[in-house]
Specification:
15% strand, 872 residues, Non-ribosomal Peptide Synthetase Peptidyl Carrier Protein, Chain A, alpha/beta, Rossmann fold, single chain, 4 domains
Length: 872
């Protein structure tokens, strides 16, 4: 099917720890061909997306075996594929199993039969689609043609290969001599985007749920990206338009695609230029295919029929069906459609009983049979709705279909019936809609989603979300980390990056959130650091004790949190700016209110005293810490807005962090040398290294990286104050950020610690107005009262601030998008010269695509071609 050796030294398969050329891949395939032997047999191949899985698949196809592609095995689930088809060879690449059960096939296999795929996603259904070698080859060629794939392209393959969409990514790129970047990471993993940037991915594919996740995360910044595709379900018309326009501003094309396993993969695609006019359409037939509407009604709606060489031979439900030849030439899709322009089709509903959930095509009738007892199952707004008197029905459906539990909305009730005794699906839809608030969690009785919603003041949080993907901040982190420590012990250091469903699975004894827990709680070390630092600051100011260095240690914690809460795939400048705003806005409001009565100048309220204030200590310098934190983060965000820096940060986050340390260290030594004067140690450019060291601590992953950060911190703090105790405190704080693990504390102490840590900013703001009148007579009272007032102000400001949180987030998003477009040479700020140059580059790319095209593939698309010509 694929002449692998024709491309010799071109890259074929790329991954996190591998890189195979076409020649090396061909060698692996040849080794597997020899291992499988010359006799044609039925091979059942299962496993996850991996290089070894691909090598075995290509070898089985090259050896002309009949291959059943099955999802990875799941413990405790009967293997219906094995029981039904009794394969001659079983290969499980995940488990390392190669079970040759017989040397000759026990089945009669039709000569054209090449591949068998399930019709029902991950349910493990024994009903399979019979596909031919010609169908696989022509479908791959068609996709390569309309995507203009060349041997310079690199597609991201993170979809399952037993799913026809994932398989089509592989086959179309191999057909064109292009490379695929193979991984099983999801779009929620930051390492996926690091991998994509490192290998200069040009193509990204996803199902509608993928784009739901990217909407929350922020679309990854991949300068090499040339095209993005969506299939496996319907994307709303307005979102299609948004992605087409967004892609155009970033220099890539957005393709909507339509297909079914019964057509090998793809039947139609919507070119970006047609999406502007018909964003709700599925588009035109793929090259070599044909679409028509059968028996249209008065409004032009009828069943969509597809014809082409990639149509299946037919279904198989038993080994006897494997000997059959082609039974159909035109494929009734089961979907209702209309022709909205010559050759352009739009969906108008479904005729069959299939649902598209997470890109999986699920047979609803079959799912109903999986539920013990009576049940009715329908598709409702991208989720499955299940009504059954069995309380465990929804969980059973989620497990059988291998989809998240929250995507199944279960209602415990008798199945509604029509007057004739048939299932009443309209009544079922109404009943499920009325019970939309029901959530089925992965672990019985747990409600961590509700805990996250209350802590973050958000609604609609799902188990697939994580603290980082929700764009939360360090203050919310304090509360959540302690609350989660009540349920998860030990609390993982990286809990903020784990999904809620993953955290639920770590609960040793699932209970209702809010139920009585043990006397000990696992507390994150940064929470303890924040609480301890603010107590040291207030206690020292109030003459209760003399331990200096708490504020500088807090700057390191500030940088640490700013770096580690940046979601994967989202431009870091946005998050850093929002973090700075969460410090700046409440501070400016508080100081501004006080300035009305005289204690502070307007420059202090604007956090500009360091730049515009006196060159000696005055009360205006009391808020130096806030100025240092805010303006350092703003400077970091400005640097991260630069495209080259963002790309480098995506590939080498630790190296970027150390560059920030080096830059701030250079400023520190250039301005003051070794020792900082009484006022210099509070100046923004002089203390910015504290924030940078904290940032680097969050980016350090290996022992050598942690040692490098610690050595840098020790070198920078040595001699800074001329006070060894103060310098040791800062060094100890950095060491805690690098190596400390969650600490078990008594419940009362843990909750007190979290309360103080969460209010640390408010305590710092307000204590200047509380302690002076008591510091000489009652330092204990001055310290305690300062902390209490800060806690109360934090509760009040949080209540008020939550009302503005959404507005502020949107405002910063809009602002940073405009800045990003200007910096990147986007539509808003792109000069005519740049636009012309980009147009010439695109035309040159298309010309090269045409030169490399083989087997009569088109030489590129022209956006000005009318719809009927594209359809033809």
């Amino acid at each position: 099917m694929f002449d692998l050796r024709a491309h010799v030294h071109r890259p074929a398969l790329l991954g996190a720890d591998c890189a195979l050329t076409y020649e090396q891949l061909a060698d692996r395939v040849d080794a597997w061909v020899e291992r499988l032997g010359p006799a044609r047999r039925l091979v059942l191949l299962r496993g996850g997306t991996s290089v070894e899985f691909i090598a075995v698949l290509l070898a089985a196809l090259a050896g002309e075996h009949a291959v059943i592609l099955a999802p990875p095995s799941r413990p405790g689930r009967p293997d219906e594929m094995m029981q039904t088809y009794n394969p001659d060879v079983l290969i499980d690449t995940d488990a390392g199993i190669v079970d040759v059960r017989r040397t000759a096939s026990a089945h009669e296999l039709h000569p054209d039969l090449a591949l068998l795929l399930s019709t029902s996603g991950s349910t493990g259904s024994p009903k399979l689609v019979r596909l031919t070698r010609q169908g696989l080859h022509t479908n791959a060629a068609a996709i390569a043609t309309y995507l203009d794939l060349t041997d310079h392209d690199r597609g991201l393959l993170n979809l399952p290969l037993h799913y026809c969409y994932g398989l089509s990514i592989l086959t179309s790129h191999l057909y064109a001599g292009a490379a695929v970047v193979v991984t099983d990471w999801s779009v929620l993993d930051a390492c996926l985007w690091d991998l994509a940037a490192r290998h200069h991915v040009t193509g990204l594919a996803g199902v509608p749920h993928t784009f739901d996740q990217l909407d929350r995360l922020g679309f990854p910044d991949l300068p090499s990206l040339r095209y993005v595709t969506v299939a496996g379900g319907k994307l709303a018309a307005e979102r299609v338009t948004d992605y087409v326009n967004f892609g155009r501003s970033r220099g890539w094309d957005f393709f909507v695609m339509y297909g079914q396993t019964e057509a090998t993969a793809r039947m139609a695609y919507l070119p970006p230029e047609l999406a502007e006019v018909h964003p709700s359409a599925i588009g035109v037939a793929i090259p070599g295919g044909r679409l028509r509407v059968d028996n249209p009604d008065a409004s032009g709606v009828g069943e969509l029929i597809y014809g082409g060489p990639n149509v299946m031979m037919g279904y198989a439900t038993s080994p006897d069906d494997l000997r059959l030849g082609a039974e159909i030439s035109d494929l009734p899709t089961g979907d209702l459609a209309r022709e909205v322009a010559p050759g352009v089709f739009e969906m108008a509903g479904r005729r069959d009983r299939f649902a598209k959930i997470f890109g999986l095509r699920l047979d609803l009738d079959e799912i109903e049979r999986l539920v013990p007892g009576p049940a009715i199952c329908i598709e409702l707004n991208g989720t499955l709705g299940v009504i059954s008197p069995d309380p465990g029905a929804a969980a059973a459906v989620a497990d059988s279909c291998d989809i998240p539990a929250w995507a199944v909305r279960g209602v415990v009730a008798d199945v509604p019936l029509t007057a004739s005794g048939k299932p009443d699906r309209d009544a079922a839809a109404t009943l499920i809609s009325e019970n939309a608030g029901i959530r089925n969690e992965p672990s019985t009785g747990s409600d961590l989603c509700g805990l996250f919603e209350r802590a973050l003041n958000r609604h609609g949080i799902k188990p697939a979300d994580s603290f980082v993907t929700l764009g939360a901040d360090s203050l919310s982190y304090v509360e959540l980390s302690v609350r989660l420590g009540e349920f998860i012990d030990p609390l993982p250091r990286d809990w903020h990056r784990r999904t809620i469903s993953d955290l639920t699975a770590l609960m040793s004894v699932p209970q209702e959130v809010g139920a009585k827990r043990g006397r000990w709680i696992s507390v994150d070390p940064t929470v303890i650091l924040r609480a301890l630092a603010i107590v040291l600051i207030v206690g020292t100011h109030a003459n209760l004790l003399t331990v200096m260095g708490g504020a500088h240690a807090l700057l390191a914690v500030c940088g640490y949190n700013a770096a580690r809460f940046v979601p994967g795939g989202r431009p870091p400048a946005r998050h850093v700016m929002l973090g700075a705003s969460r410090i700046a806005l409440p501070s400016m409001l508080w100081i501004g209110a006080l300035s009305v009565f005289g204690p502070y100048a307007s420059t202090t309220a604007l956090l500009l005293n360091g730049a515009l204030g006196a060159d000696h200590w005055t009360t205006e310098w009391q808020f130096w810490f806030l100025e240092a934190a805010v303006w350092t983060l703003v400077a970091f965000a400005a640097v991260l807005c630069l495209p080259s820096v963002r790309r480098w940060d995506a590939r080498r986050p630790f190296a970027t962090a150390m560059c920030l340390v080096a830059a701030t260290a250079a400023a520190r030594y250039a301005l003051i040398g070794i020792h900082a004067g009484p006022l210099e140690r509070y100046s923004v450019p002089v203390v910015a290294w504290c924030v940078a060291v904290g940032w680097a601590a969050a980016r350090a992953e290996t022992p050598s990286q942690r040692l490098l950060v610690f050595a840098s911190a020790v070198g920078l703090v040595a001699g800074f104050f001329g006070d060894i105790q103060r310098e040791l405190i800062i060094a100890a704080a950095v060491a805690a950020l690098l190596w400390a693990r969650p600490v078990r504390l008594p419940r009362f102490l843990a909750l007190t610690c979290s309360t103080v840590a969460a209010a640390s900013l408010s305590i710092y703001l307000t204590h200047w107005q509380v302690y002076p009148s008591l510091e000489n007579r009652m330092p204990w009272a001055a310290t305690t009262l300062s902390i209490l007032v800060g806690v109360l102000y934090q509760r009040f400001s949080t209540t008020v601030g939550n009302r503005f949180q959404v507005v502020l987030r949107r405002a910063f998003d809009d602002f940073l998008v405009r800045v990003q477009v200007d910096v990147d040479g986007g539509v808003q700020g792109r000069s005519d010269e740049h636009r012309d140059r980009q147009h010439v580059q695109q035309e040159q790319h298309r010309d090269r695509s045409g030169e490399r095209a083989v087997d009569g593939r088109a030489a590129g698309r022209k956006s000005e071609r009318p719809a009927h010509e594209i359809a033809a």
